[in-house]
Amino acid sequence: MDPNPTNFPILSYVMAKLPSIKRSFSNAAAAFDVENPPSPPSEPQEPHFELAEKMPHLNNPKLISAMRCAVKDLAETRSVLKALGTRPDHEAVDTARFKLSELNTHSSRGSDELNEDCKMYKAVITLDEMHEAYEKMLGEAERRLERIYEAAVAGEGDNFIEEEEKGGKNVEEAEEMNEEVARILKEAGSGTGIERVDLSERKLRALPEAFGRLASLVVLNVSNNQLEAIPDSVSGLENLEELYLSTNLLESLPDSMGLLFKLKILDVSGNKLIALPDSISHCRLLIELDASFNKLTYLPTNIGFELVNLKRLSIQYNKIRSLPTSIGGMKSLKLLDVHFNELRGLPPSVGKLINLEILNLSSNFSDLTELPDNISDLISLKELDLSNNQIHTLPFTFGQLFNLSKLNLDQNPLTIPPEEVVNEGVEAVKSYMAKRREEILMEEEQKTMHEMPEQTQASLLTRSTSWLNTFVTSVSGTVSGYLGGSPKSNADSNYLNQQL
Predict the structure, then answer these.
(1) Who contacts 156 (Cβ-Cβ below 8 Å, separation ≥6)?
(2) What is the DSSP string of 422-436?
(3) More confidently predicted of 18 and 278
(4) How many helices (H) and strands (E) does the chain have?
(5) φ, ψ dihedrals at 454, nearest 5°
């Protein structure tokens, strides 16, 4: 999302100066080289900022030089991503991996068709991996530009350069936190069975691997820190039921989290996660999962088939384009919050969420244009938020949501139902859609009744024509036999005599 010019004047300015690369399909030979992007056509000039009067500290030459390098890295990485095109759908990538594994295991070698299929699946996987790598680079470049901007606002250009040279670490804070963690580990090593640890808001930068030895731990809260990674040894917390990791700097979670078989509550909101590990599906006792305010573009393919006990799924404020088909397997789900994403629709399997009570699909803006007809299968639905989308027509089955008591349709270009009905409230909308459904069914029934006589007459005519053709063919064959053609049987002669 582009920065607000009012709140981030420098950042918005340099982002506006980034080049926009349009893809060209007319000359494949001159395509953009991903591994060797072309250098700028001319030497970059010393940046001139119109906002220099408001930001006097931008006159620091070291800071300007650092900003120029950051903008260059950001521009090149964005250009590469544009050249790569659209990233493949996560389910398509998983399918490609599965098919490739199948072909390598069961199919015979040397087949041209097999080789072509392998190339296709490998291309899908490679494209996805390249997107992931360059998106990570883009994130790093954006974060560096943000830090430079913050240093410019605070007038700490020299300090910023010094911190970058030292690695940007505050040694005293790290040592202080290490002492506190060491104390907890020492207490656990003395034989005391620690069940709850709260290290929230301590500016903690890392958890040591030794934390995995706290096997008795039931609740761990390390939210509101500066954690950039969770150690693989977290799998040793075999009795852990609640894990709070919100508001940190996490870009990924370890696969070993799938071994937390007793985990019931997981909060990873407010991080920089691009994806959840597929192994999260193995935490089958999960009741609440909050992954909001991240950078997720998809959910694990099989997450719904495994997390059958999940009751609350909060994934708002991400970049999710589609929900996996397996979402229908979450039979216990009562709350699904997907607002402020890039959702393009709902899979038909969503109708299987018969216990769902609250569904928030608001603020998917131009991406969400319609709802599936089987949304009426959500028989327990009480609250539905569809505001800030591009929905023109509600499904004709909408009136069957009998338990729906709260509905928000604001900021949609609705034509059915009309605005005056929407303004009367949820009951008026349900009543209108129920009547519309009856009208549609009646029209279809009348159309069917009107078509039935015509079909019957056409069927009779077809049967009569068929009989006549058979009769003529038989007579013609018999007559040709009498006239010197191929000899006919006595049965044919008797049949002809009877007809004559």
Answers:
(1) 57
(2) HHT-HHHHHHHHHHH
(3) 278
(4) 10, 10
(5) -65, -40
In angstroms, the CA 472 to CA 247 distance is 87
Q: Who contacts 494 (Cβ-Cβ below 8 Å, separation ≥6)?
A: none
Structure tokens at 370: 């319609």
Q: Read off the amino acid at residue 130.
A: M
Residue 243 confidence (pLDDT) above 80: yes
197 SS3 class: strand
Angle between helices 112-154 and 157-166 (to 10 degrees): 140
3-state secondary structure at position 324: coil
- Give strand ranges (E) for 298-401: 312-314, 335-337, 358-360, 383-385
Task: Report which of 270, 240, 274 is spatially closest to residue 257, judged by C-alpha positions.
Answer: 240
Q: Is residue 305 a contact partner of residue 329, using CB atoms and an 8 Å limit?
A: yes
Nearest CA-CA partner of 283 in 321, 320, 254: 254
Q: Could you tell me which residues come within 8 angstroms of residue 302 by beta carbon, excluding any fewer than 6 positions away?
A: 278, 281, 324, 326
User: What is the rounded distance in angstroms from the CA atom of residue 247 to the CA atom of residue 301?
Assistant: 26
Number of C-beta neighbours around residue 259 at 10 A: 17
Cβ(237)–Cβ(217) under 8 Å?
Answer: yes
312-358 pLDDT per residue, tens: 999 999 999 999 999 999 999 999 999 999 999 999 999 999 999 99
Distance between CA atoms of 246 and 249, rounded to whole angstroms? 9
Phi-psi region of 20 (alpha: psi -120 to 50; beta: other; left: phi over 0): beta
d(CA 77, CA 99): 31
Helices (H), 353-489: 419-423, 426-482
Residues in the chain: 500
Tokens in use for 79?
Answer: 């250009």
Residue 99 has pLDDT above 90, yes or no: no
Quote the tokens at residue 350: 């969503």
Give 289's strand partners: 266, 313
Of residues 144, 2, 139, the one with CA closest to residue 68: 144
User: Residue 241 in contact with residue 219, Cβ under 8 Å?
Assistant: yes
CA distances from 400 to 329, 355, 427 (A): 22, 15, 11
Q: What does the alpha-carbon distance between residue 159 and residue 168 come to, in Å, rounded to a whole number?
A: 10
Average pLDDT over residues 38-65: 55
Amino acid at 276: L
How far is it, in rounded angstroms, from Cα 163 to Cα 142? 18
- Which tokens sit at 258? 């799938």
The whole-angstrom separation of Cα 12 and Cα 55 is 14
